[in-house]
Give the backbone structure.
Amino acid sequence: MAINSEPSDYGYREGDDESAPLIVPPHAQSKPTRGRTSPYGAVFIVVNAALGAGLLNFPAAFYMAGGVVAGVVLQMCFLSFIITGLVILAYCSQVSNESTYQEVVRAVCGKVLGVICELAIAIYTFGTCIAFLIIIGDQLDKLINVMAHESDSAEGSHWYTDRKFTITVTSVLIILPLSIPKEIGFQKYASTFSVIGTWYVTAIIIIKYFWPNQEISPGIIPSRPASWTAVFNAMPTICFGFQCHVSSVPVFTSMRNATLRSWGVVVTFSMIICLFVYTGTGVCGFMSFGSMVSQDVLMSYPSTDIAVAIARAFIIISVVTSYPILHFCGRAVLEGLWLRFNGTDVDTDVVRERRRRVLYTLVWFCLTLVLALTIPDIGRVISLIGGLAACFIFVFPGLCLIEAKLSEHDARSVSWHALVLYGIFMVTVGMFIFGQTTTNAIYRDINNQ
């Protein structure tokens, strides 16, 4: 509720109150949740939630994985877990009667895991905001060069093309004023630009692969991983790219026919669309540049390419409008934790809420800006927060499934045991990915330092 300006945005009903039981078996529900979102609209929202800044890092992820085959196979292996995780969250939303990711985890798994989940969401949105600012710095200097009719060799020769200057000015003049208000009223416009931008970037990368620029000379294109552990290097990007689970619960509850069957169809189609977009971008971007591909694939193209310059403009607009929304979600989680810790009612604390909101925003903004100015590329950020994305995809849904099944008092059949084992398997896989990717990212950062 705190993340949305209107309860109707996510399909809340007048009859919802605190008297409703926390755990309600699905068969005991007489009517499915009635929202306003059609299945086609739900597909659009889920796709929009998944596609984002991670798109630019997929060609580099394919190179680190060891080629096209390794990258595609790894995506296909993850896809079944991603879809089942989304269905599990919808099931747990039904049995807990909750409508946000963190509240589902809190209701099903307990207060401790609920707090851990909220902290993970705050850290994840914080890291994503850093990636957004890095993208602004990467793209604006190239865009300024093409507007000034300068070549890449002249890059950095002017103070106004320095990424530290462009990031700071854009952040202070545009992003900070958009982040301070209590409510965000431009989500629909940001979503539109985000969808248009990601699809346009994918189309341009594919077109440029078949009709390459004469200035581009690709490096070595590996056909197999250098070692069996090399494929793990692509896991943070894949998890980061397909992570839409935090937004999925509100989308499910907003559907007109909120049933597990219809939701399963929605998420299957959504993830197939994302798979084609990410695969097209990853394969064509990787094959265009090989070992010369940048962590941000648009940085590999020359500044003088007008079509790519338009893609950069789309990405900048998308990032500038998306940062306040991500910050808004993270700030709402921190505010909820603070109010719950102090036992304070937000309705009776309006003045202090305004002060806290401004303080949250300034601290959040300054920290993300300083880190964005010191971190050289989005690959390092994604490698760190990609592990948290794995927790949202694997660990928390797996724990919710285990707890939801253990709370049932019916006879424990073969399917019950199979679902519990599947939940344990998801938690194990998620913890392995989180530990491996985070440790590897820290180790590589220390070596690069």
